[in-house]
Amino acid sequence: MKSHSISTHRFAKPLQGAAIRSGFTLVELLVVIAIIGTLVGLLLPAVQAAREAARRSSCQNNLRQLGLAIHAFENANSYFPPSSWAVSTSSDPWSGQARILPYIEGDSLFKRIDFNKPYSDPINKNLFPPNGVAALKVDVLLCASEVNSRARLDSLGVPSHFPTSYGLCTGIYKVYDPATKTDGGAAFAPFSKLCARAFTDGLSKTLALSEIKAFNPRSQEIAGLNDSLPASTAAAAALVTSGSFSANGGHTEWVCGRTLQTGFTTTFPPNSAVFYAHSDGVSYDVDICGSREGLSTSTATYAAVTSRSYHAGVVSSALMDGSVRTIANSIDGSLWKALSTRAGGETVTGDY
Q1: CA neighbor of 102 nearest in space, from 156, 135, 132, 140
Q2: Backbone phi, then psi, for 324, in 5-degree steps?
Q3: Considering the chain, what percentage of its residues have pLDDT values greater than 70?
Q4: pLDDT band for position 259 (50/70/90)?
Q5: pLDDT at position 21, please?
Q6: Residue 334 has pLDDT above 50, yes or no
Q7: Residues 265, 303: contact at Cβ < 8 Å?
Q8: pTM
Q9: Cα 13 to Cα 202: distance, rounded to the nearest angstrom
């Protein structure tokens, strides 16, 4: 009988010298890096767009809170807050933003302030030494996109003021005439207690607040301004003789009830550039103003203080009914002006 043997097969060893592949080649690695770079390039704009959308949403939420606060003030007092609240004609006037502190989670701060004295009075400065409430940051008054969310410093390098990103509408160009006690016809006026019945154009067709840029270059106390609006941004810039163009620009004092600090006018559409060529070789996008509110008992205040935003191509604005709109730079100038009057009788049509 034949015997059958079962042979055991073993795996053959690799041939001597055969290469074993264990990683990427240089070409493959470069291809992978190129793909990752392309994906990152595609992703970054989407991330930036999402961040900008979040910042714009936050900005609009701030405006909604401020709009609600204005109405809460009106409910409590039967009138809307004045844009300027002065103890006397020679004092630093309090802003409307300061007067609504109790309605924007600032009640404890509000109760400590002595509004019977200017914000620059030692009594108010000593609340929060050395420069008082003016140097405090109020979060709801600042847009998340504001690049200059920082204190303005005094001559010693100490914080003296904090800016705001939202201005009250104080007129088209005229703001206030102390001789006749007439204002610019807007939602907010200096030293005036406007009631809801004064808004015959309708609350939904009247601007309340709009975005402004902190530390914006300004020129003030320009003599000779009158009811004639500058025909163009170039004509407005030609009126500039001197001013503050860097460290102490406009919209740096949230407590101050002057249009250059806490207001805006509709002389020009949103984000209009008013370029003034300074002797230092720099062209500054300026705001201009004649005699500031509260500094004279006879000279009227005129101002071209433009609503500006870091949101590309638009500004966020609140209307007096509490609604918030995104308004494009391309809005018709006449429509923009019409939206700033409370009783102008204009027919407001068009997309805004």
Answers
A1: 140
A2: -120, 135
A3: 90
A4: very high
A5: 56
A6: yes
A7: yes
A8: 0.86
A9: 92
Q: Which of 75, 85, 77, 54 is nearest to 176 (CA)?
A: 85
123: amino acid identity, one letter: I
pLDDT of residue 20: 52
What's the Cα-to-Cα distance from 114 to each of 89, 254, 339, rounded to whole Å? 17, 16, 35
HSE-CB of 173 using CA atoms within 13 angstroms: 15
- HSE at residue 98, side-chain half, CA atoms within 13 A, is 30
Q: Lowest-confidence range among 209-213, 243-247, 304-308? A: 243-247
- How far is residue 315's CA from residue 211's CA, in Å, rounded to a whole number? 6
Q: Any residues with CB less than 8 A from the CB of 79 and at least 6 apart, and which?
A: 193, 194, 195
Token representation of residue 283: 């062209």
Q: What is the pLDDT of residues 139-185, one digit of tens each?
A: 999 999 999 999 999 989 999 999 999 999 999 999 999 999 999 99
DSSP string, 68-108: HHHHHHHHHHSSPPPSEE-SSTTS-PEEHHHHTGGGTT-HH
The token pair that represents 193 in the structure block: 């207690």
* Per-residue model confidence as pLDDT tens digits over 260-315: 999 999 999 999 999 999 988 899 999 999 999 988 989 999 999 999 999 999 99
CA dihedral defined by 321, 186, 57, 313, rounded to 10 degrees? Answer: 130
- For residue 316, the cross-strand partners are 326
CA gap 72, 45 in Å, rounded: 40
CA distances from 181 to 20, 40, 192, 223 (A): 93, 60, 9, 20
CA distance 310 to 56: 9
How many of the other CB atoms lie within 10 Å of CB of 329?
Answer: 15
State the DSSP code for 238. T
Question: Cα–Cα distance between 147 and 312 in angstroms, integer?
Answer: 14
Helix (H) or strand (E) holding 25: none
